[in-house]
Amino acid sequence: MKKRVLATLLSAAMVLSLVACGGAKEAASTAAEAANTAADTASDVVEEVAEAAEEVAETVEDFGTGEIKIWVADAVVDFTNDEVAKFMEENPQYSGYTVTVEPVGEGDAAGNMITDVQGGADIYAFAQDQIARLVTAGALEEVAPENVDAVKSQNDAGAVGAATVGSTLYAYPLTSDNGYFLYYDKSVVKDPSTLEGILADCEAAGKNFYMEINSGWYQTAFFFATGCELSYETDDTGAFTKANVTYASDNGLVAFKKMIELNESKAFQNGSAVGEATNCAAIVDGTWDSGAAQDLFGDNYACAKLPTFKGADGKDYQMSGFGGFKLLGVKPQDDELKLMVCDALAAYLSSEEVQLARYNEVGWGPSNLNAQQSDAVKADVALSALAEQLAYTIPQGQYPGDYWSLATSLGDSVRSGELKSTSSDDDLMKALQDFQDTCISYAQ
């Protein structure tokens, strides 16, 4: 049985002394029933514990006092402070806690937590590709049993999968907007549906097409398109146990040849940041650059899912790639009452209401299914293009840190001209085999 399950039952017993006699008997009965079924299946145990926890939370009169520290990106510090104030006003039972919101971005939060779990935030936002490291470091508590069903049913499958390690849900989804798609100048690119057409339009107009092919994030758009696999399996501790890689294959060769062909187009420039692009008519980028893209293209601003491409085998392939997510984690606590407060606050900050408000405030795309269907979100052309693209992508799981530098090296071998369209299939396959073998070695 998980530590969290035992802790919840112990917490139930502890708070019984704090409640009125009638409520105490009811909570005690529920908690005792959960304990008595511990010998049954694990799923039954978790269900009983969730019910007990909900009833206990309803009967607690005093959650104690303490301080709660939250880390979020600088762009949403003020927003989060306002939402925390609303939460505390609506939940006076938590008034003994002082909440402080600090600016620590999702890209830095995991590293800071792993370095000093004790001194880190109690609740923090992080990029989903860091979840395995955080679990291994003991920096993430499992999602409270009473919140699991709501999280799974109210958020899209990709976000829920990103918040899960092994079979355990460890985080509350915040966004489903960390993917890439096509921004383009519609006065130049007449039909964004095929890569060949986009390049022909850009070449004819003397304009540039940007994509970052020496990035392990972006180059999967080619390999996943042809059906190649690149994923890792982890155990409940976050340790890598198996690598599933099929780049060294006929499908991988088709993808690699197309990436090389793109690199050799006179319109191609390697990059993925609108702000650094020059003479640009099309770029593969994400929602974080939507404002810059609108400024760049003006009245000709347009967005679309990634195009298809024609492979060397004559078949058409839809470009794919990774989808990514922002998650909200809760740090393990010695004080079970404080943990209850942190869970309640994290659930609120990741709720439909707050996700939609956050979109309206800073434009972050929600993972909540109902929020995604709001008129405001559906009217956002960048998010709409991303939503269409995410139907063809693979949710980014956990990858060893060395994978990213390895993928850069693969792309650099193309960028440098070491591998080109005149290279033999044997040479290209050798590069893919070396890449695949090294990827597999990271899980051995």
List keywords for this structure.
single chain, 444 residues, alpha/beta, D-Maltodextrin-Binding Protein, domain 2, five-stranded mixed sheet, 19 helices, disordered N terminus
SSE blueprint and pairings:
Elements: H1 3-15, H2 21-36, H3 42-59, E1 66-72, H4 77-90, E2 97-103, H5 106-115, E3 123-127, H6 131-136, H7 145-154, H8 157-162, E4 164-165, E5 168-169, E6 172-173, E7 178-179, E8 181-185, H9 195-205, E9 208-211, H10 220-223, E10 230-234, E11 240-245, H11 250-263, E12 268-270, E13 280-285, H12 290-297, E14 301-304, E15 308-310, E16 316-318, E17 322-324, E18 326-330, H13 336-349, H14 352-362, H15 369-372, H16 375-378, H17 381-390, E19 394-395, H18 401-415, H19 425-441
Helix pairs in contact: 1-2, 1-3, 2-3, 11-19, 18-19
In short:
Helix content is 46%, strand content 17%. It has helices at residues 3-15, 21-36, 42-59, 77-90, 106-115, 131-136, 145-154, 157-162, 195-205, 220-223, 250-263, 290-297, 336-349, 352-362, 369-372, 375-378, 381-390, 401-415, 425-441, and strands at residues 66-72, 97-103, 123-127, 164-165, 168-169, 172-173, 178-179, 181-185, 208-211, 230-234, 240-245, 268-270, 280-285, 301-304, 308-310, 316-318, 322-324, 326-330, 394-395.
